[in-house]
Every structure is written in C-alpha cells, then in structure tokens.
C-alpha cells in the first residue's frame, strides 16, 4: 500500500504503552503516521477535556521516522491539538486509538479515554477506530490483535465509513488460532457493580479506592460481550447521539402540564 | 409534598456554585436531600472516573439542615461514592445534577460533568436529571429555571421514568414570562468548531488554550437547540447506548472477508 494515507494515532496509556507501539507498527505500513499521546496515564478519563488550564505539546523521538508528540492533556485534547494545531486542519484519513490494555466493550465506551479520543475524531467526520485487547498486562501478546487491527484499518481506509464514523473494536485474549473471526455487534447493556476499598492513609485520614465487577445482564448473541466470550473480535459501529428516541412519545404529557406563570 | 423522597444532588461546578444552591432550594421542599459535590472545578470532565488514586470525602456545612460532602474526584465519582459509601446502597428516588452554569444541550452532553454524573446514576437505574441554564454568569437569575426544575422533578418523582432513566434539561436565558413552556426533544446533531489560543508563558514556553464555537447543522424543529432558540425549556430523554444501529447491516461484509491464519 502506498503512503497516500495520513493516520493519526493516540491512546490513553501514554507513549510508552506496548499497545501504542503495536498500533504504530501496523499503521506505519499503511501510511504517514502522526502520534499524539498523553504524557500521564489517562485511563477512565472518558470524554474529559481541559478547559481550566493551558495545554502543552512536547515533541518526542519515540518511534524512528515518525512524528510524535506528548500532550499534557486528556486523550480528547490530544486529538483536538493534533487536528487543529499540529496538522493545521489538513485532512486526516483515519484516526486510530489504542491498542488499549483492557476491554472497552459495552458500557466501558463511556468511561474510556481510548474510545473518547476516537469519538472526538469522528465528530470531526474523520473515520475513527478504537482498538482494545482484553489483556491488562503490560506484557500482553499483541500479535493476534495486530492482525485484526491491520485487517480492519485496511477495510476502513479502502472502503471508508459512510454514515457512522466510529468503530469500537475489542479483541479477545486468545492465541491467533483460537480467534474465530470478526463480528459486527451492538453494545451489550452491561454495567459495573461498584465497590470501594476503604482504608486509612499514613496520616490517619480515610480514603476510598474505586474497584468493581463487570455485570452483563444482556444474554443475546448480537452483542459485543457475546462475541468476545465466544472467541470473536467485536466491532461495534458507534455514534454520539444519546437521545433515547423511543422515550420521546411517552414523555409528551410533560409538555402539556399547565405551568403557572408565577414563581 | 411529604418527606418520603430521597434526592441526591451533585454538580460539576462545586459546592459554592449558585446553580447548586438553586437546585438545593427546590429539592429540599420535595424530600430528604443529600449533596455530594466535587471540591474543584470539574467542567468538561465528561464521564471521567478516578482510578489511579484514592478518593476523599469531606463533610461540609454548606446548607442548613442538609447533609453535604465535598469529594476530591469527578462528578461521576461523587455519584458512585454517594450511592455506595455514604448511602450504603439505600434506595435513591431521584438524582439531580446542576444547575449547570451554561448549556449542556446537544453534543455538550458528552463533555459535561453535570450530565455524566446524572448518567452514572441512571446506570444504577436511578431516575436522574441533569439541569443547565444557558447563562455562564455566576450572577445568573436562576428563578425561572427553578420553576421548571420543580415542575420536572415533581413529574419524575410522581410519575417516574420507565424505559429511559435520564433527562437532559436545558433552560433558556430568558425572564419567566418569555419562556414558552417545555419541549420533549431529541439531541441536535451539532458540534464544536475548535480553536486554540496559542501564547507563550512567562518562562518562554508555548502553550495552547482551548476555545471554540458551537455550530449547529441540524435545522429541524424537534431538537433541543431549536427548542432553546425558540424560547422553550428542552427536555431530552437520554441513554447510554452508543451503538449506531443502522450501520450494523452495511458493515457485515467486514465479517465475511477472508482472514489469513498467519500473522
């Protein structure tokens, strides 16, 4: 493939993450790569943006022959700065984020810095993909994931995405020969059951540390969780319309209620 | 109305925000109120959660007769700690967030700490409402907003929300007599056109500060932006399914493509 594509890469685990390196290795074979990654861990940052303070960009020599910057902000800030400052609004053919260390399937999409970065690019009408591997280990084997990453990136670069501009891709933690292929899915209606570890710090002050358990109450076979549990790579076309459309008609009585004109 | 309802209040502007006070004034007439608000500004924090460090809770005497805590985390953290630590999973009849100083209509819902806090409660199957007034001023007149806040809270407490558990409510910056009523709407397909102010700090280092312009390319009359521009309070029933359902069938060819079994 020629060097005709411009590919923006970001993540939420920072420049040193093996998952980022794995993504760069694939992307550099498909086009011109620009990397802008946060300079601090940004897992769980969701769609946070930095508005209360200034942002910084630091050029780094992280990957031979590839332009890369660390950014002081969130993953979404990285995409905004890449698009508007570094690339001065030149066209970007594809934005890929990840490969995240850990699942971003189902409800994780709303907490995920990885996916929020890709979503931010999709809001700019850039074809965007968030990639995640269901393995939190820094020593995870990214080779099977890389295979599917390349396949999906080539598809999107060659075929394009029309209506929906964002794919949420999760790869099961399996050796190559155990992965059964790809499934186009919907987001499972699962959630986290929270728990907090309560403890006391060295100064005697109480603190709370978030933990939790992922609970899937959505057993159907068309979801991302089903696909992953059954050995498939899940691909969820994703948007940014949070309207619960079917709840509009039943709420119409709220419009009709008489509202007194005094406070 | 009796004191039978338990109402959790949070926001993203912190305990001192006039919008929070305005919300407490309404809610305390409707039930038992618990306030958990961030102890630092959290605008634009989206659905960020704190996982890399511990969280703290500080009881404060902010409103006479009302239990209130400041939290070191994000708005979503406030809701998680309120539900699981402070209230020890006792039932919550309603979670209200705000009143935010500034619009959270349309795409702002994904950047908004105010709405993300309410969404977090909705994930716990708690009826939840995010309230925002289209006035950034700390001296904004919240009285017209309070009127509609009370009306909508009473409706939700008495009628309940069934399928959808989250309402995104925005109030135009208008005197009471100019507000034309409520509209149940969908989220407009609008976005921010970003810009960055570039400048140099006192140490000679370059920085970037996010700014931008809200652009609505969705002129139909069933959106929240239309309602607000035409003098109505907008109410958008909102969910957390980001699946772009109509894009599932056209992406099916990606499943069929032959995948070589070598890496």
Strand content of chain A: 25-35%
Bin the helical content of chain A. 25-40%
| Largest sheet features of chain A | 9 strands, mixed
What is the element string of chain A, with H for helices and E for strands?
EHEEEHEHHEHEEEEHEHH
Number-wise, the strands of chain A total 11
How does the SSE layout of this entry go?
Two copies of one chain form a homodimer.
Chain A: E1 5-10, H1 18-27, E2 31-38, E3 57-60, E4 67-71, H2 75-86, E5 94-101, H3 108-111, H4 113-123, E6 128-133, H5 143-159, E7 166-171, E8 182-184, E9 190-200, E10 206-216, H6 224-229, E11 233-238, H7 248-251, H8 253-256
Parallel strand pairs in A: 1-2, 1-5, 2-4, 5-6, 6-7, 8-11
Antiparallel strand pairs in A: 3-4, 7-11, 9-10
Helix pairs in contact in A: 1-5, 2-4
If you had to describe this structure to a student in words, what would you say it looks like?
The first copy, chain A, is built from 8 helices and 11 strands. The first copy, chain A, has 263 residues and is an alpha/beta fold. The first copy, chain A, has a single domain (5-188, 221-242), classed as Survival protein SurE-like phosphatase/nucleotidase (Stationary-phase Survival Protein Sure Homolog, Chain: A, 3-Layer(aba) Sandwich), CATH 3.40.1210.10. In chain A, strands 3-4-2-1-5-6-7-11-8 form a 9-stranded mixed β-sheet. In chain A, strands 9-10 form a two-stranded antiparallel ribbon. In chain A, α1 packs across α5 and α2 runs parallel beside α4. The longest helix of chain A has 17 residues, at 143-159. Chain A is globular, with a radius of gyration of 20 Å. At the A-B interface, α2, α3, α4, α5 and β7 of A face α2, α3, α4, α5 and β7 of B.
